Amino acid sequence: MPSRFGWKLTLLTVGALFASSRSAFAQIPTGTVEGKVPEAGSGRPLPNAQVFVVGTTTGAVTTETGSYRITGAPARQAQIQVRLIGFAPVGRTIVVTAGQTTTLNFELQVSALQLEQIVVTGTGQQVEVKKLGNTVATVTPPQNAPIKSAVSCCRAASQASSDFRRPA
Predict the structure, then answer these.
(1) Helix, strand or coil, per DSSP, at residue 75
(2) Can you give the pLDDT at residue 52?
(3) Strand order across the beta sheet in which 30-36 lies
(4) For residues 98-120, b (16+ Cβ closer than 10 Å) or e, as one string?
(5) Cβ-Cβ contacts under 8 Å for 82 (sequence gap 6 or more)
(6) Model's pTM, two decimal places?
(7) Cβ neighbours of residue 52 closer than 8 Å, sequence gap 6 or more
(8) CA distance 45 to 64
(9) DSSP secondary-structure letter at 129?
(10) φ and ψ of 23, to 5 deg
């Protein structure tokens, strides 16, 4: 049976090993990645694009000038990806050096999304739902929506459409 001194020494040794292993994990070398994200062709800066290191939670969002800065990027070969709604995602592989800043610029191409069409059929007279030969669905807005009826929604869409087409 081990003595009391033996148990204390064992506990101290295990504690020291645990503490040293935690500090070793906490000291993973990191670097910084920075750059700009403009639109391809026009060069217009793209704000609010997500730039991140693939496989980690490390990343940044571009500013109004299209620039970004990722601090704490793992110092290794890393895949950096950029995403923004309406643009095709872009990824590049770079080598991040510990304690250094790596510059990486991206250009994003516009990417239109193709959605499925919706067919809406209306009848000019009042008919019981049972007698219709097609599917009937009712669309209701959420209670907190500023638009309370389909008519007001159509009016808003019509107004927005005419405002968009009106020459300046």
Answers:
(1) coil
(2) 97
(3) 67-74, 30-36, 101-103
(4) eeeebebebbbeeeeeeeeeeee
(5) 37, 49, 50, 51, 89, 90, 91, 106, 108
(6) 0.55
(7) 58, 59, 60, 70, 80, 81
(8) 7
(9) G
(10) -70, -30
Q: How far apart are CA 161 and CA 168, in angstroms?
A: 14
- CA angle, residues 11, 13, 15, in degrees to nearest 5: 70
Dist CA 48 CA 77 (whole Å) = 25
**Three-state DSSP class for 7?**
helix
Contact 49, 90 (CB under 8 A): no
Alpha-helical (H) ranges within 27-113 are none
Per residue in 122-138, pLDDT tens?
A: 666 666 766 666 666 66
Tokens linked to 157: 């869409």
